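From: lab user (bench 3)
To: helpdesk
Subject: output format question, protein + S-adenosylmethionine

Hello, I'm new to running complex predictions and I'm not sure whether the block I got back is the full result or only part of it. Here's what I submitted:
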Amino acid sequence: MESLVKKIDKNISAMIQVAVLNILKLGMEYRIFNKLTSKKHYLDILNMSSIKNKPLLKDLLDTYVEIGIVERTLNEIRMRDFSYTITFSRESISYIQPDWISVFEEMYKMTTYSFISPEHPKILMDFDKDADFWDMRLSLEFNSTYRKLIASIGKLRDEMTVLDLGCGSVSPVEIGKLVGPNGKYVGVDFSPGMLSIAKSRIKELGLDWVILRELDIRTMIPRSKYDIIIMSFVLEYLPTLSLLKVIDTAMAALNEGGKLIIIEPFRENYPQIAAWEFFEKLTKEFTKFPSKSAIINSLEQTNYNFRLHEIGKSVLVVEKL
Ligand SMILES: C[S@@+](CC[C@H](N)C(=O)[O-])C[C@H]1O[C@@H](n2cnc3c(N)ncnc32)[C@H](O)[C@@H]1O
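Helpdesk reply: Thanks, we reran it on our side. This is the complete output you should expect:
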């Protein structure tokens, strides 16, 4: 299990480092940094750039401010001296699962289309329209690694009941197959595109204990209780105000002694995460990666007793008492 945890954390750190490099590339490629060498009025920078999508340019400038490349007073903005060190230790490189690199390159290209228009047809980040691209992302080695970690934490085996919130197209197969045929896996997702890919695989493999439901996790009311509830890379698509409601629903649906397993790059553990978020915003539902403290705060506001286990930098396990 320790090696799986290291793989998750080290790959997330590497993804963020690559995202920082990519965001620096954008600043140079679009001559944004050139324009910012002397102090400029914020609105002038927005207007003078060749980037047509001004809300996205504003987002990019805000990201530069957040990661410390650019300083901003009320109306003025200027490039700071910025240095960024990447450390390649032998140990961390041995954990890297490099197939996500091409996805990051693809997202870089998509951003350049998004600079023309947010609706550009070459942007492939919609869960329905671009379910195939998402399916490819969710099939990466990194994603299979965190599913293995979920299986190990939850001690998944036949006869167990699992509810997977925002299940996507791959988890219903990779996690679903572990709990049958006497168990039950219920995957909930609001995207018909993602669910239709999952459904055809489930049918093909004959995993008839896997149930898929097209529902929004913000409004769903589960009727059964489960041994394990999973939320992997889904909280970043919730508006902040929905977090408490979704956590409360998950805790209500958990058996006593059951576990809620949350996998996310918790933002307090990854200082430059805003760079990665800039690219993820190509998906219109993306809000931001959650903080561990906001999740714990929500848990404390529910009426349930729980014990918390933090595993590495990206996993929270909530045991319902
Ligand atoms: C990044 S994918 C992660 C999928 C899966 N959990 C995994 O780790 O492979 C996010 C998934 O959450 C779904 N999703 C996002 N917001 C949702 C909501 N409010 N209700 C249901 N599904 C949601 C998306 O459709 C997408 O399939």
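A quick orientation on your result: The longest strand covers residues 254-263. Let us know if anything else is unclear.
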